[in-house]
Amino acid sequence: xxxxxxRTEWRIGAPIQRxxxxxxxxxxxxxxxxxxxxxxxxxPSRDGTTVGSVLRYTFKGRLPYTLTFDMLIDRDExxxxxxxxxxxxxxxTGLWSLREExxxxxxxxxxxxxxTAWWMNLLAPLARGIFTSNHDFVMRSGAEGLGRRLGVPxxxxxxxxxxxx
Length: 165
Fold this sequence. Notes:
The chain has helices at residues 16-24, 29-32, 118-150; strands at residues 3-12, 36-43, 54-60, 66-77, 81-88, 90-101, 104-115, 154-163. The chain is of the alpha+beta class. The protein has a single domain (3-163), classed as Alpha-D-Glucose-1,6-Bisphosphate, Chain A, domain 4 (2-Layer Sandwich), CATH 3.30.530.20. Strand 4 (66-77) and strand 5 form a beta hairpin. It starts with a strand and ends with a strand.
C-alpha cells in the first residue's frame, strides 16, 4: 500500500465555535464543500455523541475517479478536536485541530492514510505527485466553500506533505 501524510491549515476570519460547528457537521459538507459528493451515516453512536458513529464519505477531485471510505469517529472535543479512523479505499487517521490565533481561527487537518485500491498502489510510484495535487485541490475546494458559507476569506496553507512508500 502507498502511504501519504498531509497537513493542511485553513486560516479563517470567523469565530472558532462557528468554524467548529460547520466542520463538525460533516453530513452537511456536500452543501458547501464542492469536492464532497456524499456523506451518509452508516452507524450512529450508542450514547448520542458522535464518538463511535461511522460515516461514509465520497470525494471527487480533479481526477476521473471518486474515493469512498468509512470514518469511525473516535475523538470529539468541541471546539478543539475531532477525528477518526478511516477504512475502505483509504485507511488511516484524520484529525481536525482548531485554535484561535491573531483574531483568526486556524483549522488544521492531519490526514495520514494508505491507499487500498490496487490501481492506486500500482500507479503510486509514478503518480504520487498527481495524487498529492488532487488532495490539495480537494482541500482548497473545502477552504473556498467554507469561506463562502461563512462570508469570510479563508487562506489555505500546505504545511507539510510527506509521502511514504
